[in-house]
């Protein structure tokens, strides 16, 4: 299912009269064709109720009906090294067709659980938990109640999902568990946030931590529970970001303005670091006929920010906010400096399908790996942003909490002692 399919002013779908040829939606390519091509690659392999393949590893924990939810392993109908299919840390530089292709090959098997404590679950729950902690793709043999079916499902938070099927039973070869994750899992006196922090310091992928977190692998023994995949992604990003921020606040200030730039999946990124105490903002500009702006005219701008004291409520902009905040704090730790950060994002029409918040996390990480442009004043740095981005700097500032605070609020330093 694709959400936000383009419609005319009367609410009628534009897809029927278009039939993929006229691009009435204004997108550069037809998202339905991208989905269809991905489906055609594997649908002939998914006709029976027996499914065998190497899970990347990958699992999915649903959220509908919570606390009565569906969970299960995800696997393709083939073996080998399938790790790329569920490792978004390796997707930077790939085309959107590649991402859809990766995900369409994974069948989302599911069975219903009523007990959120994985320790009280049945054998399939424990096997799913073990699989989620695997270091390499284990071979899985699954018996389904009926053949896989359904269309691709897209989400602003999680990666795209392929066909699904109700799971009767499954078995797997010996699972080689990631020893770093296993150590945190076996410590039932270790708080989940401390487990995540230790794993992050040891180089475990964020996606691997989210996967293990979703199956209740971390935390105090009696408090462990299954967490829907979408929630676990944001929980891990937020927890890690806040943990790093505690240390960021103790670092000396950056000495100049630095601007990092990158473009991927027709998303244009400018990450501006300010020589100030911690503050942070993500501003997103969505062009017409993109995910959060399905209309055919006008650019929609959304933002969430925090000043030095942080924020209390959930970010209006959603999980992207926490994914980018994590990436910024990782970079500041590598620099050994504290700074403010304003991230400018332009989502252009070539971004025809949502692929999940990994897009934000990994592309901001990549932008911060690029050599920065350095400036002595905020005005010089913003002039560069205005040059490289299509939207005027005046409009960016009008939609920014941090920039207006920096530019218009009087500070003690502005007055002579």
Structure notes:
Residues 24-293 form the Archaeal Nre N-terminal domain. The chain is α+β, with helices and mostly antiparallel strands and 417 residues long. It folds into 2 domains: 24-248, no CATH class; 257-414, no CATH class. It has 13 helices and 12 strands. The chain has helices at residues 15-18, 31-42, 96-104, 123-132, 179-186, 192-201, 206-214, 229-248, 319-335, 358-369, 378-388, 393-398, 401-408; strands at residues 50-54, 59-61, 69-75, 107-113, 139-144, 164-172, 257-264, 267-274, 280-286, 300-306, 340-347, 373-375. The strands form 2 sheets. Strands 1-5-6-4-3-2 form a 6-stranded mixed β-sheet, covered by helices on one side. The chain has a 6-stranded mixed β-sheet with strand order 10-9-11-8-7-12, with helices on both faces. The longest helix is centred in the middle third of the chain and has 20 residues, at 229-248. The radius of gyration is 23 Å and the shape is globular. 44% of the residues are buried. The model is unreliable at 35-40 (pLDDT under 50).
Quick take:
The chain has 2 domains: 225 residues, no CATH class; 158 residues, no CATH class.
Features of this protein?
417 residues, alpha+beta, 6-stranded mixed sheet, 13 helices, 12 strands, 19% strand
Query: What helical percentage do the residues reach?
Result: 25-40%
**Structural class designation:** alpha+beta
Rg result: 23 Å
Number of discrete helical segments: 13
The geometry reads as globular
- Major beta-sheet overview: 6 strands, mixed
Q: Give the N-terminus to C-terminus distance in angstroms.
A: 63 Å
Largest sheet, spatial ordering of strands? 1-5-6-4-3-2
| Low-pLDDT segments, ≥5 res | 35-40
Helices and strands, in order, run as HHEEEHEHEEHHHHEEEEHEHEHHH
Mean pLDDT: 89
Tell me how many strands there are. Answer: 12
DSSP strand (E) fraction?
15-25%
